[in-house]
Specification:
Elements: H1 2-23, H2 27-45, H3 53-80, H4 87-119, H5 125-151
Helix pairs in contact: 1-3, 2-3, 2-5, 3-4, 4-5
């Protein structure tokens, strides 16, 4: 149920991001999206094993509002910057890069999760898993910070 909720919110936010992009430019929704995603990742990084489920779901919803708000206008802006004959090539390159970056990010997340679990000597498997997940969120927090800084 929670996954469906975040998916619906993601879809609605993508549509709203498109409307914002149409009325303004790509910079404003992208920066706002990265700031919101930063807040969502920060709340997840601050989660502890006894955190209530509603806290995790709310944090994920915040993250799922920020990500499409940042990504949709940025991708549209990039594709609109290509000339007509190169539009198909630009779309192909963007889709290919999304798949490659997704695979690399999955590998990095797995490494960070394992590293965080290995460095956590206290507690049971839940505490070690949470510590490992925090490593991934710290990595993302720094990424979001760099993206926000690059737009200013």
């Amino acid at each position: 149920m929670a996954a469906a909720l975040t998916g619906i919110i993601n879809a609605i936010t993508s549509a709203l991001a498109g409307r914002i992009y149409d009325s303004q430019d790509a910079k404003r929704p992208a920066v706002l999206g990265f700031i919101i995603a930063f807040i969502g990742a920060l709340t997840l990084a601050l989660a502890t094993p006894p955190a209530p489920v509603w806290y995790i779901i709310l944090s994920q919803i915040i993250l799922m509002i920020g990500c499409p708000l940042a990504m949709a206008p940025s991708q549209t802006y990039a594709l609109n910057a290509t000339q007509s004959p190169a539009s198909a090539d630009g779309s192909t390159i963007m889709n290919t890069l999304q798949q490659i970056v997704g695979a690399v990010a999955t590998a990095i997340a797995t490494i960070l999760l394992a590293m965080g679990q290995g460095m956590s000597k206290k507690g049971g498997s839940t505490v070690r898993f949470t510590n490992g997940a925090h490593y991934g969120f710290y990595f993302n927090l720094n990424r979001y910070r760099l993206f926000i800084k690059s737009y200013n």
